[in-house]
Amino acid sequence: MTDVNDVTHAANAATEIVETDAGPARITWHKAKRARLVLAVSHGAGGGIEARDLKALAAVLPAHGVTVARVEQPWRVAGKKLAPAPKTLDLGWRDIWPALAKPGLPVVSGGRSAGARVACRTATELGAHAVLALSFPLHPPGKPEKSRAAELLGSGVPTLVVQGGNDPFGKPGEFPEGPYELVEVPHGDHGFAVPKRAEITQEEAVAVITDAVVEWTGSLG
């Protein structure tokens, strides 16, 4: 059950508190003037919605007809440092979904790292239009045998993976073939940071992400 009980506005964004069975969650809306899609993106297990990729998408996508909803899971809103079990993450996402769908537009379910896993696991059940998986954690660092590929391959909807070329949770070349698209951010780590010696700048690396998502969302029917 979703109960929106607080909405505040600031700097072209609206912040909405949504009650879930896992505790209060927070949605920060970045609305397009003539929106045709909602892109809902959540954070990973070690960070929040201030991640460089999520901030960049919120800044760029609205000009292309995509409203961006950056979602803070209940554990993060509560100030906890460790994410709960996957089932609890999924529970929170399910309860947040009605607020994401309320504008009446197709919703692209997305997230980075652990948030990408949640989006993949719940996409079909929630009726997501598509999935955006940023820095999908294909396996724990150094443990390729513990693959999470089944979650990605089982999303059941059009899926875009954006992956850093040096992501210790899974480099692009480690991903199996499947019904999804994959865009590589050269030299990027799990947070899409690139070393100073790389042939692309940090700004160019972020542009690879936003350009890819703009093109992909534009192709979605």
TrEMBL record:
<feature type="domain" description="KANL3/Tex30 alpha/beta hydrolase-like">
    <location>
        <begin position="35"/>
        <end position="216"/>
    </location>
</feature>
<dbReference type="InterPro" id="IPR046879">
    <property type="entry name" value="KANL3/Tex30_Abhydrolase"/>
</dbReference>
<protein>
    <submittedName>
        <fullName>Esterase/lipase/thioesterase family active site protein</fullName>
    </submittedName>
</protein>
<dbReference type="InterPro" id="IPR029058">
    <property type="entry name" value="AB_hydrolase_fold"/>
</dbReference>
<dbReference type="InterPro" id="IPR026555">
    <property type="entry name" value="NSL3/Tex30"/>
</dbReference>
<dbReference type="Pfam" id="PF20408">
    <property type="entry name" value="Abhydrolase_11"/>
</dbReference>
